[in-house]
Predict the 3D structure of the following.
Amino acid sequence: MAVIGYLGKSALEGVIFEVSDQTVRTLSNWKWSGSVRYAVHQRHKYHALTEYTGMDPDKITFDMELRVELGVKPLDDIVKLWTYHREGIALALTVGHKGYGKYRWNITSYSVEIKHTDNEGDPTAATVSVTLQEYLRT
């Protein structure tokens, strides 16, 4: 088994990104973005002045394809992400050998597209889209 990374409180729990002959759980459509803030000060008869006022928290978005035939129980990962989101838990994000962000991340939004279910209504294939926002220590 090759652990690619994780999103969670630690490498021992959370959503583990991995590839093996039995399990595939990876990220796709991964985007990392950042922005800064500027104030614009209007002046009479002169050009407006801009002033750099600070940085906004970075954001990361990604999709995960969760399928039973890839060795994943989609509902287990969906419930973990739902819990992290609802409880506002700050999570570490590690991909490869690199931890991303200056500290942790919060799930600000997610969406789940359930593509198939079994005969009891449990998802067997789902695409989960997650938006993270950087959470900094004060």
